[in-house]
Amino acid sequence: MFPRGIALALIAVGLCAPAPARAQQTGREKEQILWQKLEANVQEVDRHLDGVIGVAILDLATGQKYLLHADEVMPTASSIKIAILAELYRQAQQGKVKLTDFYTLEQADLVGGSGISSVLTPGMTRLTLGDVAGLMISVSDNSATNVIIDRLGMENVNALVDSLGLTHTRLRRKMMDLKAAAEGRENVATPREMMLLLENLYRGKVLNQQMTENFFHLLSVHKESYIPRNLPEDLKVANKPGELEGVRNDCGIVFAGKRPYVISVMTTYLKRERDGGDAITKISDAAYQMFDRLGRSSELGRVISAHDTGNP
Q1: Which pLDDT belongs to residue 189?
Q2: Beta carbons of 137 and 221 less than 8 angstroms apart
């Protein structure tokens, strides 16, 4: 037995010691309950959707993720333009192209889904390559996208995703190439690989810091899409939706304060396309509610707002 003086000293040290790891573990356990509720919300959406849905959500602060049918290969529609934009900025960083280079729009460039390009004057309209990329992302202009693909080389876009280990993500055809699509040459990816592509871009594994900032600045330009539909208007969301018959997708990063996250939701075999879009929005809303709360809370769940009076 310890002498009485030493025993009292040990007791005093114990009283002054930091809280046991159990308290921290309890905080993490509470956070896991929120993840379980998010999972339940996503599964509820899945049960009610007449179609196939794949979901990949990644907490960029902790690395925790939620996956549902995340390795199913699905048509990307215009969400593949995230990879095309990444390769454009990579080649610009390497000096292979210049975003300030001019391009003159030609009649042969125009395809279905051209958007703004269809009202521009062929042979006379000069745009910088950066402007063309802006049309590709902001209004999903397919003619602009094909101009970018021709400038970069389809094989180089695929080489980029290959270098990141994304073996199921493939750019196989230009936009509105219905013959190629009918032959089975569809642009494809999985929800997990779209999530990983965005994570690699966010963590600076593809582009340098300045190019990464430029990339996400362009990707976050306002556009009609499903992820941000019900989220706060001033919230930065860098995303690219995609639509085809029977297909609705949206993939992006939501910069939610201290808890930014990647969300990739892809749907196919839809009986009603509108239901696919609504499903993406419901999952996006549920994810934001969780990450926003986690970002503003202590590990025990206490939120201190600017207007908090401090009253018990």
Answers
A1: 98
A2: yes
Distance from first CA to last CA of the chain, Å, rounded?
45
Distances in Å between the Cα of 79 and the Cα atoms of 61, 74, 172, 241 are 24, 11, 14, 5
Q: Residues 6 or more apart from 174 whose CB is under 8 A from it?
A: 111, 145, 146, 149, 150, 154, 180
Q: Are 189 and 170 in contact (CB under 8 A)?
A: yes
DSSP helix/strand/coil, 183 = coil
Reported as type and span, the H/E element at residue 237 is: strand 237-244
How far is the C-alpha of 291 from the C-alpha of 286, rounded, in Å? 9
> What pTM value is reported for the model?
0.88
Mean pLDDT value of segment 164-187: 91
Return phi, psi of residue 162, to 5°: -60, -40
Taking every pair of Cα atoms in the chain, the longest distance, rounded to a whole number of angstroms, is: 96
Q: Which of 149, 130, 127, 129 is nearest to 78 (CA)?
A: 149
Give the closest residue to 143 by CA, choosing from 179, 178, 174, 170.
174
CB 299 within 8 A of CB 36: no
DSSP3 helix / strand / coil % (the chain, rounded to 5): 50, 15, 35
User: What pLDDT sits at residue 311?
Assistant: 54
Report the pLDDT averaged over residues 224-252: 97
CA angle 292, 273, 112 (to 5 degrees): 105
CATH topology of domain 48-296: Beta-lactamase (3.40.710)
- Our CA angle for 96, 138, 108, nearest 5°, is 65
User: Which is more confident, 16 or 297?
Assistant: 297
The token pair at 180 is: 């190629």
Q: What is the pLDDT of residue 108?
A: 83
Segment 164-186 shows an average pLDDT of 91
Instruction: Tokens 């969301």: give the residue.
Output: 237
